[in-house]
Amino acid sequence: MVLVPWDRRYSVGVAVLDDQHRILVGILNDFHAAMISGRGESSAGPLLCRLQEHVSKHFPAEEKLMESAKFPGLAKHREYHRNLCEKVEEFVARHKKGDHGMYISLLYFLREWQKQHLLLHDREYIPYMAEAGIS
Description:
Blueprint: H1 15-36, H2 40-68, H3 74-96, H4 102-121, H5 126-131
């Protein structure tokens, strides 16, 4: 069962970023599927690792394109990215301590963050990318 199906509303019109965003949505859905099947505890560590690896590549790539497009909200957007990385680190620490109660919080956080980030924050740079011819 998919928690957040990919929707064209999430598209930012830049193929590489859309592909990376699909991976983020996929990580969320994989974790949701693991939770439903009773594998949340065994899946949380590897999925958190995948999430950390992915955002460590995605965020700099997205920020570089925003810089190329002269997006004036880059500093604010970088702050959103930093906040997510810090929150993921908190979840990693909780997982390592054996805090099994964090799995529902992690799932909720990821779902809300992705909805907010993909449907609000990332929408802000779309016109700048289009004007710069970045697709």
